[in-house]
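Entry type: protein chain
Record version: 2
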Amino acid sequence: QSGVAIVGLRNSWFAGRNGYYLERIARAGYVAVYFGSSTPSVVPPGASKKILGTNPLAIALPGKVNPFIFDMGTGTVMTGEILLKAFLGEEFSEIVGINGEGVPTRSARELKEGGVFPFGGHKGYGVSLAVQALGLLAGSRFRNGQVSDFGSLLIAFDPELLMPLDQFTTELEELLTKVKTLPKQPGVSEIRIPSERGFKEREIRRQQGVLVNKHVVQRLYDICGTSVPLE
């Protein structure tokens, strides 16, 4: 009735790709903004201990064909990347955080004990802290009594509260077209828009299937109590 919905989700855990949920809202013709706080894995600048989550934020806008979706984490790398690389015994190509003793490291296993840096230095730190605070509004403390925990705050609204939907999608399309047709620097073949590559990749994967690391597949079979030889 109001054209606006605000939802706080508490006592939950890792949400996966937040843009997936927002895409469904945008394809229905609505605007959505998402903030997700989480348990400590990010180290503030100058600190030697983690206190913030990787704390993603996402924005989705309805479009003419596909919605515009911006989905990012506020850590240099996301927890899912750390867990996967630690499971595979891999390192990052550059230093992205510290170990349990506060020493900079590229090792994913050491990052699990230490923590990662926020993206973009002090600016990314500010965004990460703001998202952590917004998680409190979603009831993040409810789960374990800690102020640094999982909380998802979702705001969705009808763009027609401000202008006709067709007018907005037309103006958005004009903006994105102007961005993509800007003069390119030498060696640049394309100026990309957030979520554009994801939509293209989705169509490829629908035709060719999804590539999954064989060790992850083996682990899934192990959990299920069956065994499949690695090839």
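Comment: The mean pLDDT is 93.
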